[in-house]
């Protein structure tokens, strides 16, 4: 579904193009704009907040003092700086001046010399915060696009790694790049991504999350259709599968796609473990997600409509725990669910050490007080706490939020129709998932449509030696990863004494 702010043809601003004199007049109104004459011949102008002053005094001003009579074209040849430009195009002048270039003018000429001297202030590369792993690399993306591309090229040192750059945002002029491996990535998917990004018409793009919301196939869906990650190793891995990545200048994360539902429950650490352990952990996560969504609704449905299903021994426990509670099961379930969400939100908005304390102490104190006050049963308190704990096993943060949200429609359905309501709610979600796509690829593949060969790295992970082909859902130009050769059986190891 196309967004309301995505248009095929961007409307013009309706303003006449500025002259160079008018542009410089606007720039001089800002306190951080510097303009002065050098050698009584050249006029040097730049934004001191954007320019590296060491480059100005070391590489530019000494050259201007050598021979003031030289032309701009001659200066372009002798300046020890890359990508120097001589132009009279006011659009290029404005763009490069506002992106950290030094503007050099001579009288009686309409052209200017633009010298790149960008001051690059950036954060140091640190360990991933949201996707931390015990095993594997400990590098994460930062807010510098050049640094992030460096981290990718370090892992994929091949000339086929292509980077397509686009400028998005009327005010922010944000650099957005689409990264893919030529000859492996499907050309239609690459063109679709570039076309959707090119057609974005919005005033600001601050982060890759802006891009994600505007290029998803269905932006009304609660399910994320693209994966956002801060790990360069994960991006390198999906690029080698034939997928694409989108990076944004100023954002410490990348967007990868097309993706499937099962990928949101696969941690990248799974590839650093043996396939037996990785497969077990994936099944644990899928069970935890199912338990998180269905446990509380099942409690409400059974106690409201289907109490005859409860075993006799357990029935006595439930009766004793609910004795004296004035609310029906749905009310006490909603009270506890909202309390858990309040504790989560409060803990995430506070400093890390304080947030952890609030989450642990607040949960214990409020839960104990609610049971002692007779507002909820201790059985439901245990069920809700386990459901909240199970939702934390989802490796991707956005899918974790989706799981938290899905519990509430299931709760309401359980209160209205019991187990039938849960089944109807599940059917609605299943139909929605069947219709959902990611860059045109089926969202719940390889389960539907069934692709047996892709199941080797879906619900469970088989050894690398058996993953000889790339996922079918991405329709890679080169589907075969490597040719698996069956080697002869190894000879038994000889004893060292022999």
Helix and strand layout, with pairings?
Elements: H1 20-28, E1 33-38, E2 42-47, H2 53-66, H3 72-78, E3 85-87, H4 90-97, E4 101-105, E5 112-116, H5 145-155, E6 161-168, E7 174-181, H6 187-198, H7 208-215, E8 227-229, H8 232-240, E9 244-248, E10 254-257, H9 275-304, H10 312-322, H11 329-349, H12 352-372, H13 378-391, H14 397-417, H15 419-435, E11 437-438, E12 441-442
Antiparallel strand pairs: 1-2, 2-4, 3-5, 4-5, 6-7, 7-9, 8-10, 9-10, 11-12
Helix pairs in contact: 5-8, 9-13, 9-14, 11-12, 11-13, 11-14, 14-15
Membrane topology: Multi-pass membrane protein
Main location: membrane
Protein name: Spore germination protein
Describe what this molecule looks like in 3D.
With 498 residues, the chain is of the alpha+beta class. The protein folds into 3 domains: 20-116, no CATH class; 145-259, no CATH class; 272-442, no CATH class. 43% of the residues lie in helices and 11% in strands. The chain is built from 15 helices and 12 strands. The protein has helices at residues 20-28, 53-66, 72-78, 90-97, 145-155, 187-198, 208-215, 232-240, 275-304, 312-322, 329-349, 352-372, 378-391, 397-417, 419-435; strands at 33-38, 42-47, 85-87, 101-105, 112-116, 161-168, 174-181, 227-229, 244-248, 254-257, 437-438, 441-442. It has a 5-stranded antiparallel beta sheet with strand order 1-2-4-5-3, with helices on both faces. Strands 6-7-9-10-8 form a 5-stranded antiparallel beta sheet, with helices on both faces. Strands 11-12 form a two-stranded antiparallel sheet. Helix 5 (145-155) packs across helix 8 (232-240), helix 11 (329-349) packs antiparallel against helix 14 and helix 14 runs antiparallel to helix 15. It is elongated and about 100 Å long. The model is unreliable at 1-16 (pLDDT under 50). This is Spore germination protein. InterPro entries: Spore_Ger (IPR004995), UPF0353/GerABKA_families (IPR050768).
């Amino acid at each position: 579904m196309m967004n309301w702010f995505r248009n095929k043809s961007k409307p013009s601003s309706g303003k006449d193009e500025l002259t160079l004199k008018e542009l410089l007049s606007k720039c001089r109104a800002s306190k951080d704009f510097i303009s002065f004459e050098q050698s009584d011949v050249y006029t040097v102008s730049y934004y001191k907040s954007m320019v590296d002053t060491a480059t100005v005094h070391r590489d530019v001003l000494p050259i201007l003092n050598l021979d003031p009579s030289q032309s701009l074209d001659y200066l372009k040849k002798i300046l020890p700086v890359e990508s120097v430009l001589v132009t009279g195009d006011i659009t290029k002048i404005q763009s490069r001046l506002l992106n950290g270039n030094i503007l050099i003018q001579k009288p009686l000429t309409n052209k200017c010399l633009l010298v790149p001297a960008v001051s690059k202030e950036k954060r140091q590369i640190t360990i991933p915060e949201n996707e931390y792993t015990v095993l594997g690399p400990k590098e994460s993306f930062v807010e510098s696009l050049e640094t992030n591309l460096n981290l990718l090229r370090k892992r994929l040192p091949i000339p086929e790694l292509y980077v397509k750059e686009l400028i998005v945002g009327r005010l922010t002029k944000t650099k957005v790049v689409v990264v893919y491996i030529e000859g492996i990535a499907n050309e239609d998917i690459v063109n679709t991504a570039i076309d959707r990004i090119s057609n974005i018409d919005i005033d600001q793009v601050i982060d890759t999350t802006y891009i994600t919301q505007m290029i998803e196939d269905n932006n009304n869906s609660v399910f994320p259709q693209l994966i956002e990650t801060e790990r360069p190793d994960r991006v390198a891995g999906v690029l080698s599968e034939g997928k694409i990545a989108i990076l944004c200048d100023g954002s410490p994360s990348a967007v990868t796609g097309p993706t499937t539902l099962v990928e949101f429950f696969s941690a990248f650490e799974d590839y650093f473990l043996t396939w037996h352990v990785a497969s077990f952990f994936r099944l644990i996560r899928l069970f935890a997600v199912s338990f998180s969504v269905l446990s509380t609704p099942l409690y409400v449905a059974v106690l409201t409509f289907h109490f005859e299903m409860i075993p006799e021994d357990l029935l006595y426990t439930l009766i004793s725990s609910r004795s004296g509670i004035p609310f029906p099961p749905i009310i006490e379930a909603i009270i506890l669910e909202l309390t858990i969400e309040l504790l989560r939100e409060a803990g995430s908005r506070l400093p890390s050490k304080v947030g952890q304390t609030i989450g642990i102490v607040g949960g214990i104190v409020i839960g104990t007080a609610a049971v002692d006050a007779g507002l909820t049963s201790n059985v439901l308190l245990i069920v809700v706490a386990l459901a909240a704990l199970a939702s934390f096993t989802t490796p991707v943060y956005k899918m974790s939020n989706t799981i938290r949200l899905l519990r509430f429609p299931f709760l309401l359905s359980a209160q209205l129709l019991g187990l039938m309501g849960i089944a109807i709610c599940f059917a609605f979600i299943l139909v929605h998932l069947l219709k959902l796509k990611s860059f045109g690829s089926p969202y719940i593949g390889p389960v539907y449509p069934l692709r047996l060969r892709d199941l080797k790295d879906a619900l469970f992970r088989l050894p690398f030696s058996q993953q000889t082909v790339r996922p079918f859902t991405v329709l890679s130009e080169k589907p075969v990863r490597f040719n698996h050769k069956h080697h002869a059986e190894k000879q038994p190891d000889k004893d060292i004494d022999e």
